[in-house]
Design a protein that fits this description.
The chain is of the alpha+beta class. It contains ten helices and twelve strands. The strands form three sheets. The chain has a five-stranded antiparallel sheet, with helices on both faces. Helix 1 (about 1-70) runs antiparallel to helix 2, helix 1 runs antiparallel to helix 6 (about 270-315) and helix 6 runs parallel beside helix 7.
Length: about 400
């Protein structure tokens, strides 16, 4: 019985604990995953807005220079260009071309120290786009001719004469190294990567942890394929191979509004699951502790119930009608119902002991018994008054032969 009560109590007490721990662990894992998606998405949105503003401010600077050149003479263009460049240091170089694409003013100084005049940029996309559309233009990333291997992004704007005739293009080459502050700003995003792609899926900027260099084409990469197939590109999962092993990532894509560029922020799922795994372990240890405590409490409670009952069972097995037997078990600390049962047995044994124990004076002839007051009662009355027994009368064969010999023979 003790084992049954123990297991029953443990099952009843542990089941809610395990259920609650499981529900809480699943809920906590979902909450943490939701928070992780929110952090990655917020980082991508913040970077997208900052890049948008960075391009917008410098595009406005180039457009302002183009309007300024429309009001200045040819001999002052270089001075205007240099002063403007001082106000906007985000550019590597700035230049002005004529209508044919020949550089007529620039502050770029190559290794030889000579100004790069009369160099043609008519084949450059930033020249053709600004000339053909008549509006400021932001190019995709490309490798400059005079800046070594450093990739650049050109921002250009056309300028016109008083009759609105095209006169040339103003261009500034953005210093993409200024985007490196993203890596420091978002380092709290554990193991997070930042990737900025242009309209041709070329890397404009990537954090050093990615191992990607500018101008690297990412078309067909697992991240881009997953982003294009995702129902919500702002939050999606993808898998890629790292050192021969598959690694799952949580990523967010945010598209710029003014240019066909995209910002990606990704984080390995193992980082997120490591936090969840620690919480699961904490929940497991907490559950095991609760189970152990429940087991100890159940064992103590079972003992309080079963020990008095076991002793009572021993007393019942040793019970005699005369009231003799072991003393009734103590019921201190037992449940009220068990204590009442033990007390009832104690009272019954005491009554039987007082009633049937000892020598009974009985008449040798009529078999009447003398009670404590000296009265002689029939055996039936004496026992009936002192017990729960009752009598039904018959006649034994010896008495029948003696009292009714004739009838007995028949």
């Amino acid at each position: 019985m003790q084992t049954y009560l123990l297991f029953a109590f443990v099952a009843v007490s542990v089941a809610p604990i395990v259920l609650l721990a499981t529900v809480q662990a699943v809920s906590e894992a979902e909450r943490r995953e939701k928070e992780a998606r929110g952090r990655v998405q917020e980082a991508a949105t913040a970077i997208q807005q900052e890049v948008e503003q960075y391009l917008g401010d410098n595009r406005s600077a180039v457009a302002a220079l183009a309007r300024l050149l429309e009001r200045t003479g040819a001999d002052t263009r270089l001075q205007a260009l240099e002063r403007h460049h001082e106000l906007y240091p985000a550019f590597y170089t700035m230049l002005v071309t004529d209508r044919d694409g020949l550089v007529i003013a620039t502050d770029a100084r190559p290794a030889g120290g000579l100004l790069e005049k009369r160099r043609s940029v008519a084949d450059r996309e930033y020249f053709r786009a600004a000339r053909d559309t008549g509006r400021p233009y932001v190019s995709d990333v490309f490798e400059g001719r005079t800046l070594g291997a450093d990739p650049i992004v050109a921002i250009s704007a056309p300028y016109f004469d008083r009759l609105a005739r095209f006169q040339g293009v103003v261009e500034g080459s953005l210093d993409l190294r200024r985007l490196a502050h993203f890596q420091e700003r978002y380092r709290a995003l554990e193991a997070g990567d930042i990737i900025l792609l242009d309209g041709k899926d070329q890397v404009v900027y990537a954090s050093t942890s990615t191992g990607l260099r500018p101008l690297t084409v990412r078309t067909g990469s697992p991240m881009l394929l997953a982003a294009s197939a995702a129902r919500d590109p702002a939050s999606f999962y993808f898998e890629r191979t790292v050192d021969g092993r598959p690694v799952e990532y949580l990523a967010s894509q945010q598209a710029l509004e003014t240019v066909p560029w995209r910002v990606f922020v990704r984080q390995p799922v193992r980082v997120l699951r490591a936090t969840t795994r620690r919480y699961y372990l904490f929940t497991l240890w907490w559950s095991l502790g609760a189970i152990a405590l429940s087991f100890l409490l159940a064992r103590a409670a079972a003992r309080r119930v079963t020990q008095p009952l076991a002793r009572l069972a021993d007393a019942v097995r040793a019970f005699r009608l005369t009231g003799e037997g072991p003393a009734p078990p103590p019921s201190a600390g037992a449940p009220a119902e068990v204590a009442d049962l033990v007390q009832g047995f104690d009272d019954m044994q005491a009554r039987l002991g007082r009633t049937l124990q000892g020598l009974l004076p009985i008449c040798a002839s009529c078999k009447k018994i003398r009670d404590e007051q000296g009265r002689w009662d029939h055996v039936e009355s004496y026992i009936r008054q002192r017990s729960q027994a009752d009598f039904t009368h018959g006649i034994c064969p010896e008495c029948a032969r003696r009292l009714y010999p004739d009838d007995y023979k028949k």
